[in-house]
Amino acid sequence: MSWLSSLFKRKKVNTEIQAFVKKAFGFSPSDTAVYEQALRHSSAATKIRPGLKNSNERLEFLGDAIIDSVVAHYLYTKYPMLPEGELTKMKSKVVRRENLNMIGYTLRIHELLHLNLGRQDMHDSIVGNAVEAIVGALYLDRGFNATRDIVLRLLKQHGLDTRVHDDVDYKSKLHEWCQKNKRTLQFKVIAHRNEGGASYYKIALLIDDQEYGVGDGGAKKSAEQKAAKKACEKIFDSK
Question: What is the pLDDT of residue 5?
């Protein structure tokens, strides 16, 4: 293969990824190679030189730093009277892994990931890591300002301005209430499937064998937390 045909092959557009970027971010990239790398998990990567693979890990590192800087600047300007410690706590609530995992599932990134996990389930963190890698790809492709606008839009769509004030652990709150009132609490898996390496759970929260809330998600913990939130709303908001 000549160097010219090799270059042409590298520049070949992946139409599936092009359609994904267009739907998710509102533009069509002319070269999808960096996005393909962002969606390539280390389990499916090959070495391009000694000690270095063509996985999404380097892009993940870059995207993580960009998300941190975008959120830090947003909070710094929105809350000019808050000290550093409070701003740090707020930022950690926004950029924590569960939020990035949820954004990844909403964007359906898990359906495009290139994996080779064998019989292992795909952990939610793989999806969240890919979100960071995609942000890294966006930065390399479109620059910081465009990437900042996309990141802020995604975070606001997923509750940026409410999450910074959210300190509630609904499961802990319910366990404490049940212990105080001598009630029994349990979570029951009512649906579970694994499609293309992505898990899905639907879980009911039962108190004294009575259903108080149902939640779903790509991981048991997130589904349980959603079910616990609904149960808390039923128990505490009705009083």
Answer: 44
Distance in angstroms (rounded) separating the CA atoms of residues 14 and 65 = 27
217, β-bridge pairs: 201
Is-contact 97 116, C-beta < 8 A?
no
Tell me the two tokens of residue 55: 């996985």
Whole-structure pTM value: 0.67
Range of the domain at 34: 12-163
**Contact by Cβ (8 Å): 138, 25:** yes
Judge if 199 and 152 occupy the same domain: no
- Per DSSP, the three-state class of 28 is coil
Q: How far apart are CA 129 and CA 57, in angstroms?
A: 8
Using one digit for the tens of pLDDT, what is the confidence trace for 32-41? 999 999 999 9
Mind listing the pLDDT tens digit for each residue in 173-188?
A: 788 889 889 999 999 9
Active site residues: 64, 132
> CB–CB of 34/60 below 8 Å?
no
What average pLDDT does range 126-150 have in this prediction?
96
CB 206 within 8 A of CB 185: yes
Count the neighbouring beta carbons within 10 Å of the beta carbon of residue 73.
12
Sorting pLDDT into bands at 50, 70 and 90, what band is 47? confident
> In Å, how far from its chain's centre is CA 117?
19
Residue range 130-134: mean pLDDT, rounded:
97
In this structure, what CATH number is given to the domain that contains residue 191?
3.30.160.20
